[in-house]
Amino acid sequence: MYQKVLAASVLAVLTAAPAFAAVSGATLFKQHCAFCHPDGGNIMNKNKTLHKKDLNRDGIKDWKGVVAKMRNPGPGMTRYDAKAITDPQAKAIGEYVIKTFK
Predict the structure, then answer these.
(1) Which end of the chain is less enclosed by CB atoms within 10 A, N or C?
(2) How far apart are CA 26 and CA 23, in angstroms?
(3) Domain extent for 55
(4) Whole-prediction pTM value?
């Protein structure tokens, strides 16, 4: 009897696993960033877009640079600490930005 209950419990957890899957960088970007950065732009400062040329000009070359800017932004940008956006979520956003806005 115990084995049947255990097997059923394991099956239930495995079946529900997709519900616990990580949220994509694209989804997180839409939730936290897209309002001010639609299509990788910048509604506050047209010279500070998320496009590669602007990121590179500002010394941001990879997802780590994007996350650093999220954690300690300049004037006009919301600061996203690890309570607001976890480190894995921030990494997903950073990777999405680098991959998407060329």
Answers:
(1) N
(2) 8
(3) 22-100
(4) 0.78
